[in-house]
């Protein structure tokens, strides 16, 4: 079932979305945006649409199937955007039988609207008292009104102020807004439509129906077994979270430090997963936290301050890096304060950290000054002129301060892996339809896609093929509603992919092969490329900023040297 | 030629180092070139507990790694999230393992 909400008339309609049959998650959001949004539309204008969609497995109770996708034309990149998020919402929307909510047009009035969906349908409510509130206060007010069991996705002041780095914050299973649809500024699109929040109440719903429940359960078992036995998903992530990558990437010389001027950070261990885990234990916080129903990997965490008060949650590798190594800060408490501020104001932590790195290079503050960084993020919350520049993202900030080293692709900040030392991810940053995005190139089983084997991270050979295969597989996984982190087990345990294929087939009565699903992944990329071409963003934009090819990165002193003509072959399928 | 290496340990192995009262990093002397498996035996760390050995920032696998005095070395156990395991070379087939 699909709902359409017209913000100009506040009319709500319902249909079965026949034209979108067989699609979920990113495949669905990107198909809707490419079919219904003019690629030339202004991202904050009446012609852009904001879509919330569930994945193929949402609401089924499958392991780690709690993710959902938001889609629109991005104000940050001008490209199509799929922003994937965990938390409690995806499962509830799935149980409510909702495949998509499409928000159209612009409102006549400057106020705050709430879209509330339950078994009784979708209603639009006006709540002007939410205007001007940040995310934690918005959630508290909405929980007072609708109870603690509803799932909430909302914007803070950054979204209301239509800043290009604004995110949408979602509540986790405890009702704290620790999960974000972070990338690409979709919070600004939501703000342009004066939608302050979306709320799902699944009271009175049943488990979704299955075409073949026994086959579905058999598939579930295969994936669950793989997740529970693989060392990454059963030990590494639950114990240390993704932040365990700080020491690893620093050791590999690929942890961008002080605005991408070095690949190794002397303070890495202070901000890495080992320290995060020890701090959580010492202060009564938590690692091994599940952000969404059915998650058995539990990579998330709850971080407490020195007094034992909860400060923030979902402190990920990307945030510890961007608000840490990339600005030269090696103090986890400062990083946690910044993470909380970003989650509250409602800006993407990756974009914010990289922006601060660029601003520091431009002389706005000194590298390593965590307290100054905290104050700069507060400027974003106050929407001062400086705050608006920072909230506009790394590229805008680089231009404003005349900085040459600005790590962005298609206007979006490059995440936590330097492409000079991890060249495969560089190919993905350069070519993905989303603007620089590390999650666009996750992995699938080695023997199916010939992933792994001979690729040297510091050499150009083999990287293009690797990135292509990873991008296709990722586009499929992002369409299922599964958390991308299942890919860690899928890479090594063939039964995990079998399980995913069997669950999707048994849910809908399909008879598709893994190859068919990978074809779906290819089609997603074709849809997205076509939209981007219509928006004037083509193969010419598929490259990294010049400095990656010219400035050697210590300690390996390598540059990104994959020829542009090779990058242009990534989408040869 | 003998000399020392600077040795780090990550994830659960960092706990092992701490429990044994070792520094992290730890300075360790070697008599000369040492294989990955010999190094782990010398440290009394089972080979299964190490998926990759960083030598001067490049990943090698224990059976083929060779550590020389003067190297910066780090031990990474199984359980590190991919795809960086693939991209960094943890997921690399050993000679004779086939395609
Ligand atoms: S593995 Fe992590 S990101 Fe994925 S669903 Fe679980 S807690 Fe959320």
Task: List the defining traits of the structure above.
heterodimer; A: 573 residues; alpha+beta; Aldehyde Ferredoxin Oxidoreductase,  A, domain 1; 6-stranded mixed beta sheet; 17 strands; B: 99 residues; Ubiquitin-like (UB roll); two-stranded antiparallel sheet; 21% helix; globular; disordered C terminus; binds iron/sulfur cluster
Shape of chain A: globular
Q: Kindly state the mean pLDDT of chain A as a whole number?
A: 93
Shape designation of chain B = globular
- In terms of DSSP E residues, the strand content of chain A is 5-15%
Low-pLDDT residue intervals, each spanning 5 or more residues of chain A: 443-453
State the separation between the terminal residues of chain B, measured CA to CA: 37 Å
Biggest interface pair, residues each? Answer: A-B, 49 and 30 residues
CATH T-level fold name of the domain at 2-200 in chain A: Aldehyde Ferredoxin Oxidoreductase,  A, domain 1
Determine the CATH superfamily of the domain at 2-200 in chain A.
Answer: Aldehyde ferredoxin oxidoreductase, N-terminal domain
Biggest sheet strand line-up of chain A: 2-1-6-3-4-5
Quaternary organisation of the protein chains: heterodimer
The overall pLDDT of chain B, averaged over residues, is 86
Question: How would you characterize this protein structure?
Answer:
The complex is a heterodimer of chains A (573) and B (99). With 573 residues, chain A is α+β, with helices and mostly antiparallel strands. Chain A has a domain of 199 residues: Aldehyde ferredoxin oxidoreductase, N-terminal domain (Aldehyde Ferredoxin Oxidoreductase,  A, domain 1), CATH 3.60.9.10. Chain A contains 24 helices and 17 strands. In chain A, strand 10 and strand 11 form a beta hairpin. Chain B has a single domain, classed as Ubiquitin-like (UB roll) (Roll), CATH 3.10.20. In chain B, the strands form two sheets. Chain B has a five-stranded mixed β-sheet. In chain B, strands 3-6 form a two-stranded antiparallel sheet. Chain B is globular, with a radius of gyration of 13 Å. The C terminus of chain B is likely disordered. The interface between A and B is large, with 49 and 30 residues. The site of iron/sulfur cluster has 13 residues of chain A, from loops.
């Amino acid at each position: 079932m699909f709902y359409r909400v017209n913000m100009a008339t506040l009319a709500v309609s319902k249909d079965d979305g026949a034209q979108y049959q067989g699609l979920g998650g990113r495949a669905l959001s990107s198909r809707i945006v490419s079919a219904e949004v003019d690629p030339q539309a202004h991202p904050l204008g009446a012609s852009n649409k904001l879509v919330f969609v569930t994945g193929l497995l949402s609401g089924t109770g499958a392991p780690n199937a709690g993710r959902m996708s938001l889609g629109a034309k991005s104000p940050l990149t001008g490209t199509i955007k799929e922003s994937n998020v965990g938390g409690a919402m995806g499962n509830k929307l799935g149980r409510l039988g909702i495949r998509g909510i499409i928000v159209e047009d612009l409102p006549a009035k400057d106020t705050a609207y709430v879209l509330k969906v339950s078994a009784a349908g979708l209603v639009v409510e006006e709540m002007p008292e939410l205007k001007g509130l940040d995310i934690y206060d918005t959630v508290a007010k909405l929980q007072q009104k609708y109870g603690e069991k509803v799932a909430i996705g909302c914007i803070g002041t950054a979204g209301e102020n239509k800043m290009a780095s604004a995110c949408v914050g979602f509540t986790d299973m405890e009702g704290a807004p620790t999960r974000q649809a972070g990338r690409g500024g979709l919070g600004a699109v939501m703000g342009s439509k004066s939608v302050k929040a979306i709320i799902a109440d699944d009271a009175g719903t049943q488990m979704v129906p299955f075409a073949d429940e026994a086959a579905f359960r058999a598939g579930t078992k295969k994936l669950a077994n793989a997740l529970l036995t693989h060392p990454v998903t059963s030990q590494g992530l639950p114990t240390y979270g993704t932040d365990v990558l700080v020491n690893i990437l620093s050791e590999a010389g690929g942890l961008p430090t002080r605005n991408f001027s070095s690949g190794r950070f002397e303070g890495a261990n202070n901000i890495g997963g080992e320290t995060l885990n020890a701090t959580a234990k010492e202060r009564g916080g938590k690692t091994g936290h599940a952000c969404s129903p059915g998650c058995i990997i539990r990579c998330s965490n709850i971080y407490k301050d020195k007094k034992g008060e909860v400060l923030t949650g979902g402190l990920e590798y990307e945030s510890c890096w961007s608000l840490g190594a990339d600005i030269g800060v090696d103090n986890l408490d400062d990083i946690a304060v910044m993470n909380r501020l970003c989650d509250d104001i409602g800006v993407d932590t990756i974009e914010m950290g990289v922006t601060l790195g660029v601003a520091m290079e431009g002389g706005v503050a000194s590298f390593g000054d965590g307290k100054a960084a905290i104050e700069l993020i507060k400027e974003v919350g106050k929407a001062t002129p400086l705050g608006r520049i920072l909230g506009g993202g790394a590229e805008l900030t680089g231009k404003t301060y005349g900085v040459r080293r600005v790590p962005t692709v298609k206007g979006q900040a490059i995440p936590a892996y330097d492409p000079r030392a991890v060249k495969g991810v560089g190919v993905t940053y350069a070519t993905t339809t989303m603007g620089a995005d590390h999650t666009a190139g996750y992995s699938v089983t080695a023997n199916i896609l010939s992933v792994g084997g001979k690729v040297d991270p510091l050499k150009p050979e083999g990287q293009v093929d690797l990135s292509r295969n990873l991008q296709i597989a990722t586009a499929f996984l992002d369409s299922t509603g599964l958390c991308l982190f299942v890919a860690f087990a899928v890479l090594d345990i063939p039964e995990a992919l079998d399980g995913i294929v069997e669950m999707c087939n048994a849910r809908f009565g399909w008879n598709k092969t893994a190859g068919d699903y990978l074809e779906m992944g290819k089609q997603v990329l074709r849809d997205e490329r076509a939209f981007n071409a219509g928006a004037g963003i083509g193969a010419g934009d598929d490259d990294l900023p010049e400095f990656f090819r010219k400035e050697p990165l210590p300690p390996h002193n390598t540059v990104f040297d994959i020829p542009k003509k090779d990058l242009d072959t990534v989408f040869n399928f | 030629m003998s000399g020392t290496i600077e040795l780090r340990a990550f994830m659960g192995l960092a706990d092992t180092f701490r429990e044994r009262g070792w520094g992290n990093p730890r300075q360790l002397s070697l008599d000369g070139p040492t294989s990955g498996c010999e190094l782990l035996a010398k440290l009394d760390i089972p080979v299964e507990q190490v998926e990759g050995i960083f030598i001067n920032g490049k990943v090698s696998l224990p059976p083929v790694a060779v550590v020389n005095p003067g190297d910066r070395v780090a031990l990474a156990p199984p359980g590190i999230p991919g795809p960086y395991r693939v991209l960094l070379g943890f997921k690399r087939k050993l000679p004779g393992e086939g395609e």
